[in-house]
Amino acid sequence: MRPFKTLLLLCFMALVLPSIAQNNYTVSGYVKDELTGEGMIGANVYIKELLKGTSTNPYGFYSITVAEGNYTLVVSYLGYQDYEFPIELTQDIRHNMGLKSKAILTKEVEITGERTDRNTESTDMGRVELEVEKIKALPAFLGEVDILKTIQFLPGVQSAGEGNSGFYVRGGGPDQNLILLDEAVVYNASHLFGFFSVFNADAVKNIELIKGGMPANYGGRLASVLNISMNDGNYRDYKVDGGIGLISSRATVQGPIKKDTSSFIISGRRTYIDVLMKPFINKESAFNGSGYYFYDLNAKFNYRISDKDRLFLSGYFGRDKFSFNNEDSGFRIDIPWGNATGSLRWNHLFNDKLFMNTTAIYSDYRFEFAAEQSQFEFRLFSGIKDWNLKSDFSYFPNIRHNIKFGYNYTYHTFIPSNATARSGEVEFDTGGIKKLYANEGAVYVMDNFDITDQLKINAGMRFSLFNQIGPFDRFIKDGFDHIVDTISYGRAETVETYTGWEPRISLRYKLNTTSSVKAAYTQNYQYIHLASISSVSLPTDVWLPSTDVVQPQYGVQYNIGYFRNFKDDTYETSVELYYKEMDNLVEYAEGAQPEDGVNDNVDAPLTFGDGYSYGAEFFFKKRTGKTTGWIGYTWSKTMRTFEFLNGGEEFAAKYDRRHDLSIVATHEFNENWTFGGAFVYATGNTITLPVARYFIEGQIVNEYGARNGFRMSPYHRADISATYSKQKFKTRINPDTGEEEKVAKRLQSSWSFAVYNLYNRANPYFIYFDNNGDFFNNSFQVVAKQVSLFPVLPSVTWNFSF
């Protein structure tokens, strides 16, 4: 106990003694883009003489408390000119700052002193921020810039398959990723059955991925947090951006409602595959009568009531729709699915040290399958709807501490697989529409503090609760799987309650000014589950709550790493090791299907097990200069054990991969041309294959081997891109100063050319078996055949802005 008491004493001294010894004062305010007026997330704000400071929060706010004195306040952000301002701290000061982009500076200006050592300075582990403009310069799949595909290039993040935007993080399943868009949960982040993500890059401001050392303000998932913030909209000028590609077009309009006070942004995107392909499909084709398209709409409105109060209203609505209509046979299929989210946020500054953000959130995901032939109609549908209220507080007592605390409450409505059927006027009994209800809540507190100049700790505790409530029916079965009784729960009556303590701690020890060692421990509970029958995330997957039968998922992750920067922070490197244990994982039982829960217990088709994953991640990044990019490599192992799968023996997870390599680079050749390239290599996905076949009563019967006991061939490909931009700036003489300056042209445009799968690699998507010959003359053979989706695919997109 002595080391623990010593640690508590050090924490107390670090918090209390500075305020006792001398007068402390606070400088606080907002950092914004000088051109657009938008708040800047993660800008470095520090005291030059002390080389200590903080970074701005998601709304651009900062607060620094230091001893009385004369200092220089410095703000730096990649791609912007450093801002320096002398301050005399004899009282609390409110100082807002606007940063100017380096791109609009004259050539004579020299930028120095940027403080960019967050890689080695912070306690963050497994945390990556991606710049939207850098993502746009990378090769795009069919001309569509995709945030989720870019994330798959990072170490520890694996793709779900060929062309798929689904991702797995450090051995976790797709349901273990918390995906947030302006704090609203996005339950299905994919379009086109997984080939594109729902995030329109033109509407996105900031992308943050946390795959290890998850802080206490996040919860409800075991693997990762993908936090995406939408643009606020330009507070100064009206602007239109857009692009026309091979399969889709997009447009974004933004501008002030009241200059420097309120703004808006509206962004839309739609594919036109259905329109383009229709003239080329003849009446005899199997594709005749089919159609597919998706669309997105993002919108956000902001109002600065005062320097202490701000309102943000944002929303997303997106739909996919696949249809097939054969008029000759009277057969019709409609498969629509999609997300809707809304967030209303209120920022309030109580004082220079206490910041609050309160958010009311709505999230809705729906999937439907409808088929009709003659007079027979069948519908299968599922979904999940959330109402959420949360508040997050940030308290900055002094320069060594950043304390956060808050709460989160969610009311869930689950619609598992439900079905209706009728023939003419006759309705078939499918058990009625089932809905499951639950309350989920959490409270947390955390502190990111410097114990000494070398040792920094982020320690937090989260307490979570999940309460399944009625109306709910639990069917009781006999030994022959027949329903013999029913336990019914009334409205709001408790069915089952789960609680959990979730401690989190990350620490950083600085070895010197350019390197540090970090370690982290996280403990998480996950109360909702995604039941999937496929190796990729599909809209047919079903979200289910924890019940009296389905236990919450539980995960523990250990991390340790070495971080080092080189050449004035131009290069960032890291090596991270992790080990993760996961309990109460959910899979469909052998032979089960989602519709098996219709007219039965919704969790009847499920089986439960445990898993673990461990690995090493290597990351090298060049962050500045004409050539930027990174190299990421992961060695990992992910295993599962289910009592009723694979005979109870351990087996590799379907996304288990030993090796995963990504090389990503962009090069600004000159003011007009930017080139991008990417190469990926990964161990093949696991697959279950037959090991023997029998011919019984004229039918072939397969005997399958161990679950996921075989691997497909390795996956690898290379992509390239080139972007040609017309001259963005013109030179003029400033009438006030008489000096030459650069100003942006009103109309700007660019052409993006890309080639996906440059050397035409036939990567495996799935394997099936075909029969050749005749069994009775000994010429019968079963041949395994590989299906590959995408050959070499060129694309071109025209982008514009005015």
Cα-atom radius of gyration: 28 Å
The beta-strand count equals 53
Task: Characterize the quaternary organization of these chains.
Answer: single chain
Number of helices: 5
State the secondary-structure class.
Answer: mainly beta
Poorly predicted tracts of residues = 3-8, 14-21, 104-115
Mean pLDDT level: 85
> Roughly how much helix do the residues carry, as a percent range?
under 10%
Q: Report the sheet-strand fraction.
A: over 45%
The description of the largest β-sheet is: 22 strands, antiparallel, barrel
N-to-C terminal Cα separation, in Å? 65 Å
Report on this model:
- The structure is a single chain.
- By secondary structure, the chain is mainly beta.
- The chain is built from five helices and 53 strands.
Helix/strand layout:
Blueprint: H1 2-21, E1 24-33, E2 44-47, E3 52-55, E4 61-67, E5 69-76, E6 83-89, E7 93-94, E8 97-99, H2 118-121, E9 127-130, H3 132-136, H4 147-151, E10 157-159, E11 167-169, E12 177-181, E13 184-185, E14 190-191, E15 196-197, E16 204-210, E17 224-230, E18 239-244, E19 248-258, E20 262-271, H5 273-277, E21 290-304, E22 309-326, E23 331-351, E24 354-373, E25 376-395, E26 401-423, E27 426-427, E28 436-450, E29 455-469, E30 472-477, E31 483-489, E32 494-510, E33 515-526, E34 528-531, E35 542-545, E36 553-566, E37 571-588, E38 606-622, E39 627-642, E40 651-652, E41 659-668, E42 673-682, E43 686-687, E44 690-696, E45 699-704, E46 710-711, E47 715-725, E48 729-733, E49 740-744, E50 748-756, E51 766-772, E52 781-787, E53 793-801
Parallel strand pairs: 1-7, 1-8, 12-17
Antiparallel strand pairs: 1-4, 2-3, 2-5, 5-6, 9-16, 10-11, 12-13, 14-15, 16-17, 18-19, 18-53, 19-20, 20-21, 21-22, 22-23, 23-24, 24-25, 25-26, 26-27, 26-28, 28-29, 29-32, 30-31, 32-33, 33-36, 34-35, 36-37, 37-38, 38-39, 39-40, 39-41, 41-42, 42-47, 43-46, 44-45, 47-50, 48-49, 50-53, 51-52
